[in-house]
Amino acid sequence: MKIEPFNPVDLDYFPPGNTIEIPAWRNGEAKSPAFRRIINPADWEGVPVPPREWIVPGYVPHLTVTMFSGDGGIGKSQIALQLTAGRAVAGEWIGLLPEPGRSLVLSAEDDADEMHRRLDDIRKFYGVSFTEIGASLRLVDLVGEDCILGALMKGQIEPTSMYSALDAYMMEWCPSLTILDVLADMFSGDENSRPQSRQFIGLLKKLALKHRCAFLLLAHPSLTGMNSGSGTSGSTGWNNAVRSRLYLQTAKASDGSEPNKNLRTFQGMKNNYGEIGGKIDLEWKNGLFVPAQGATGLDKMATEARVDEVFLTILKRFNDQGRNAADRKGTTYAPALFAEEPDNQGLSKKQFADAMARLFKANKIRIDEPGPKSRPSRTLVPKAGLDAGDS
User: Fold this and answer.
1) For the chain, is the Cβ count within 10 Å smaller at the N or the C terminus?
2) Would residue 371 count as lying in a domain?
C-alpha cells in the first residue's frame, strides 16, 4: 500500500492526488507515516542564516501566498498589473520598490483588450515600450473559460486540469510572481469552509515552493469584512492560511464619508514575517494609481464638502424666495446672511465665505443680475443643472 510522504506545506489535511491511499497506520496497523524532512538544529551550527526573500518588502513575501482583497471595481486588478510592470522595468510601485523579475497574470475578470488598454497607460507612466515590459511579463486571458484551479470532489479540494496547466506553464516561464485574478473564479468550493480554504491555499503553496514563486491571490471581501474595515473574506481559514494579506478600500474620513472618489487606501493587514506594511494613500490619475501628493486631509475635505452643501441648500431657498444673496460685502452679502439662518448647522460667516470661493472655483455657482439695466441687482445662483447636494 503506497503512502504519500507527509508534506509540511499541507499542514492540517492529507493532500489530494492520484497516488494517495489510506495509510496503513490509519487502518490500525503499527506502521507510521514516513516524514520527508526531519531537521536536527545542530546541523545549522556555523551555517549562514538564509535571508528572508520578498517580492515587495513588508507587503508581499516570496515563496508563499499573499491575499489581496478589495471590493469589486475598486482597483485591485489595476494595482496588481502595475506591480508586474514595475517589476519588469525595475521601477517603483505605488511608492514602494518591488524586487525585479518575471511575472505571470491569470485574469478571469479582464480580457486581453482591457489589459491592453490598462497596460498602455502604465507603460506610458514608466516611459517604456510594450517590448520592454513583455520581456518579463506574461498575461493569460481566462475570461469566459473554466478557470477553476481547485474543485470540490468528495468533500475535498482537488487540483484540476487548469491547475496542471498552470503548473506546466510555470515550469516553462519561470515567474517569481504569479497573480490570480480572482479567487471567486478559480475556487469552486465553499469560501466559508475553513478546511476547504486551507486546502486550496495548500495547493498554491505547493506550486510556490516547487517553482520558487510567490502568489498574489486577488479576492473580494465579505460584507462583514468591508463594514469592519478588516477586508476579510468568508471563513477565517483564508486569513489564517495565507502568510500575508493586503486590503484596498476607498479612502474615508473619520465620519465614514468619501469626500474624494479618486482616492484609495492600500494597507497591509497581516504579515507573518515582520512588521505589517503601513497605509498608503493612492490617487487615480492619468489611468493608474499613484501615491497621493501631500496629506490627503480627508476629514478637512469632508467638512468642506458639508459646508458647500449647506451653502447651496440655503442659496437655492433664497433664490426660490426671490431674496438676493450676493458675493460682495454689504447688506446682501451671502456668507453673512447664511450664517444668520436657522438651518446654518452652526457654520460661521468665514466658513460660508470659504465655501463660496470653492464653489466659484469649481464652477458650481455664478452671478446673476436680474432687474432693469438701469438698476440691476446682483445675486448668486447655482449653475444650471446643479441641485443642492451635488457639491
Assistant:
1) N
2) yes
Q: Look-up: residue for cell 482591457?
A: 114
My answer on whether 88 and 42 are in the same domain is: no
- Same domain? 212 vs 259: yes
Same domain, 28 and 104: no
Range of 331's domain? 300-382
- Of 39, 37, 38, 32, the C-alpha closest to 3 is 32
Each residue's pLDDT expressed in tens, for the chain with a length of 391 residues: 344 444 444 444 444 544 444 444 445 555 667 888 899 999 999 999 999 999 999 999 999 999 999 998 999 999 999 999 999 999 999 999 999 999 999 999 999 999 999 999 999 999 999 999 999 999 999 999 999 999 999 889 999 999 999 999 999 999 999 999 999 999 999 989 999 999 999 999 999 999 999 999 999 987 666 666 666 766 778 999 999 999 999 987 666 667 678 899 999 999 999 888 888 889 999 999 998 875 455 656 767 888 898 999 999 999 999 899 999 999 999 999 999 998 888 888 998 999 999 999 989 999 988 767 766 778 999 987 555 444 4
Q: pTM of the predicted model, to two decimals?
A: 0.70
Q: Which residues of 140-178 are buried (b: 16+ CB within 10 A; e: fewer)?
A: bbbeeeebbbbbbeeebbbbbebbeebbebbeeeebbbb
Residues 120 and 239 in one domain: yes
